[in-house]
# Entry
Amino acid sequence: MLRSFLVKGILSMVGIIFISAIPFAFIGASFQFSKYIEGLFTIFQSLIRPMQLTYIVEATERLVFPYVWDPYSYSMTLLFSAFFIALVISVILSFVVSLLPHMLYKSVKSILFVFESVPDVMVGVTIQFFVIWYFNRRTRCFFLLLHHRFNSHTLFQSFV
# Structure
């Protein structure tokens, strides 16, 4: 299983590299295989030295990693620190709950069971509230538009 996963991953990466070299091969409308091979070597060289990868914006060539590395490292710092804090808090709370008397332990366990089911319900309720809010805002405008268009005073008054 692990072997097939690795083989599929490696073949996927090699396929992406081969596909990425295709633009090098086209000069005008003709395909030149020698340029394709040169493009493959260019891609492999840039993958060997990733800190020298560049991109072009408005005819200026810029390095990729000074712009990507800072936000990436900040995001990873936040992610791992949040994970570590959640892990520490969960271990502490689990230890405290395990020290509670049996009746209090059972009540805490039942309350936590309810909280485990809340996220699924809350997603559904939140979506329903959003749909109601959206149609409530849009439908009034729609019915007002129909009201003024047909010059009816009684037909759409119940909706406005």
